[in-house]
Amino acid sequence: MDERTGHTDADDRESDCTTTESFDDHGIDDGSELIRRTYYRLIADGDDAFEPTERFLDRLADAFTRAYLTVTDSHELPAHVAAAVDDARVWTGAEFGDEPDADLRGTVIPAFYRHAAGFHCAYRDQRSA
Predict the structure, then answer these.
(1) Which of 44, 50, 51, 52 has the smallest count of CB within 10 Å of its CB?
(2) Angle, to 10 degrees, between the axis of helix 109-128 and the axis of helix 79-96?
(3) What is the C-alpha end-to-end distance of the chain, expressed in Å?
(4) Phi and psi at residue 21, to the nearest 5°
(5) C-alpha torsion sign, points 89, 21, 31, 72
(6) How far apart are CA 93 and CA 51, in angstroms?
(7) Cβ(90)–Cβ(126) below 8 Å
(8) What is the dihedral angle through the alpha carbons of 59, 50, 15, 117, rounded to the nearest 10 degrees?
(9) How confident is the model at residue 124 (pLDDT cuts 50, 70, 90)?
(10) How far apart are CA 113 and CA 98, in angstroms?
(11) pTM of the predicted model, to two decimals?
């Protein structure tokens, strides 16, 4: 925060992009809630292990989207959040494409969240610029 102006500097916002607070502008104070809810949505849908397939990545993105909508009590994703989810899906697929035994709960979903959080902040900042 720039103490002279009272505004958050772009550098300050960017440093928060991969933290648990990156969705705080949507009322989500702790991103671990999204991680937890995404995991349990996948389990409820019968997906209890990671698969490096397009189908699984679609289900992961859908579970994250539904978790976001539930936590925010929204009916649709803001465009910049939807774009962040789409890009997180692609990056997660690239990151774990050759790791079929990657741990879903402890590794894959947190990585998906990190990617979504980073893209979310970048797209949010572009939108407000």
Answers:
(1) 44
(2) 140
(3) 17
(4) -100, 10
(5) negative
(6) 10
(7) no
(8) 10
(9) confident
(10) 19
(11) 0.82
